[in-house]
Specification:
single chain; 833 residues; mainly beta; four-stranded antiparallel sheet; 12% helix; globular
Length: 833
Amino acid sequence: MVEHGDVRVVHKGGSKINFREPALSTDSRFLLCASGESVKVFSTATEECLHALQGHTDLITGVLLRPSNHLQAYSCSLDGTVRLWDFTDGILIRTYSIGYPIYGIYASAKHEGVIFIITPMHTDTNSELFQLVAVHLPQCGEQLVEAKELSAVLSNISSNPAASAFGREGQYIVSAKPLQLEVYFFKKHKSYSFFLKKDNQKGGKNTFTCITCHPTEDCIASGHEDGKIRLWRNFNHRKEYTYSTLHWHHSAVSSLRFTPEGTNLLSGGVESVLVQWRYNQESQRDFLPRLGGAITHISVSPDGALFCTSHSDNKITIIQSCVKVSAVIQGLVKGDRIRTDLMIEPRSKALVLNGKPGHLQFYSLQRDKLLYNLDIVQQEYIHESGLEQFEVVMAAFDASGSWLATVEERKQKAPELELNLKLWAFDDQKQSFVLNTTISAPHEGRITALCFPHVSDGQTTMLVSTSRDGHFKAWQLAAPAHTEDEGPSWSCDFLGAYHSLVPECCCFSADSSLLAVGFQEVVTVWTPASWELLTTLSQPPGAVRDLCFGRLSCSKYLLGATTSRLLCCWNLLTCSLEWVTSMDVSLLLADPLSENMAAFCFEAGSTDLFVFKPGEPRPLFSHKALCSGRVTHAVFVPREVMLESCDEASQWLNCSHLYFLTQSMDLLTFITKAEEDKLTASSKQLVVSDDVAMTPFHLLLGKHRDQLENPQAESRLSVEPIRQPSSSAGINELLQMPAHVLPSASFLCSMFVQSLLISVNKPSEQNKEKEEEMESEKEEEDSDGEMESRISRPEHMPSGESGCAAPALTKEEVRELRRLKKLDHSWMKGLLD
């Protein structure tokens, strides 16, 4: 058995971008947000991801602009480090090692060279108590610096960064506990605490949820669970404090933020409405409704031109100061609503799964960006608890990506279950799926499985569904029955059953000549051509919950996972049980491009992974304790370029990636050491030796600059064949770059046109050897300069005739003289002697 060795599990796209409050640059051009183990830098104008700042080895818990340099930013992580970045160029400047997990970071222009972080208290072994610590950053030129000068400011605080804030240009810091507000004054080195009762007289909950401070005045705004906002004043005296109350939100206030001038206060919550309050004129309010999911964070750019809100559906909305949405950055939507399997859309290679309520989301793993949402239910979703609405519970693509089948159901009691089976056809003009057929009540019970045959030539005409009503149905694509119909539609072609047992799963063979349907403890094998029952396969007690055919050379095998913690393998040629092993398989899937199969097994509260070939008893790869909980969603993603790994532990990754969702909704994948080294090497090439960024412009213009500085190198290269413009990586990447990061066209025009031209002075092929010969004899020609001068201008020429130069020798004559000079004349000396 091969252990994981050089294969590592990493977050590869789809990470949360709403985990922590994002940061807007001073000029409102860039947005920085924590995304798993990296910091993503987006353009606020185009929504494109410009950089992914990578270097942390654990979850990033905070991103903050550096107060003394508006082009740099800090990031903190649970790996115990704080990193300083130049986010415009995507370059790591310095790493500060703290040594403790960091849950939040703060900074103030008044405290130069000092940052404030939230770390666990050292005396608490369970890490349930946290403290605010001031870290004095050493000033040195080293890349990795250990920060040793730490001093505690506040103890026993919340680990949520939204519960602490700086006030009045860094004169004090405020921290909120469930029912206590603590204010620490740096100049006095004194703190004041203010308390609230658990419940007020009207039954509202006074628990603090978030706080923020006015930038220029002594005012603290706090949000509470009952939807109220309190404005605290006169808190520099313990007994003379006052507060006023604002109330619009019907549920807990999740985020508060003052604008840089302090003229407006922004608030948001579960209503998904951004509320803008006029400071000191709280009766005047502006609203921006229907922003999507619940608002979790609010940020404001230092110049006040843009606001941004983070939402529970992994989205960031960029809003202009006039309270108008200007851009939306959508991440991968994950949550408890994921009911479908992870699927790959064959055309775009996008990851497809549940998205917004009633939608399927198409997400690009290569670009780590949402492509679009497909509305399946086509009904307005009402955000109200307890209201039963249609949800997408199942989906499947055919092999060519021409058809999509979806199942939607309304959660009600079994006798009143509402089901819809929809077939969607891909429209080449719209480049999206269009509804073709809707089948109401396709089965009398809940649908348990859905699959297309593996036909890759675009001739898919069949779909099979199984249901708890004891039947499986084959749906056929048929021509229109009447001439007035617009096109072909789907209808039921066959109804199958076996001894009144309930089918739980089904699967087509690799060549689509066989269909296996699992009826509880019996596996039935059918031929779709005539719908004849070919054979039944028995197995040890336990219902079959997952079936999968082998691929390529292992296509004769059929594997099934049972509820009795067994994995069985049948040989279809002998119709007998080939082997069986004891493991609790929660998910079984096959790589479409190889014989490899993956089995996720649940054991002792965690999931193990085994990769194997059905015909070999020894697993190719195993990974113990892959993650906590069960893995029920995974998919093989074919690679665009196959790897050529010879390492036994990573050969199974040569054809496809393996992505899987954990119970905590983290999208993970496997990466080989060779891939990781390649990414590391490419990141180190961001800066060349002369500290100039390696950009597409440098690839195009830098070569021209080097040729101007070194003409000899240009002359040596002039005899080489000129590459065609289509093969230039610089030109290709330049044409693919977003327009907002390109210089003006007038700047690039002359250089770009010159790079496309072919020199007319290119030497012909027949003279190439002669030119190379002359170049190789250059040194000899220099050493014999006197001789050549004597030949070209004889010494016995009279001085009076100095004005009349002798005719110069041609190149052919000079070359012939040089050849004669090289001849060995020593034999003549022997004759003379």
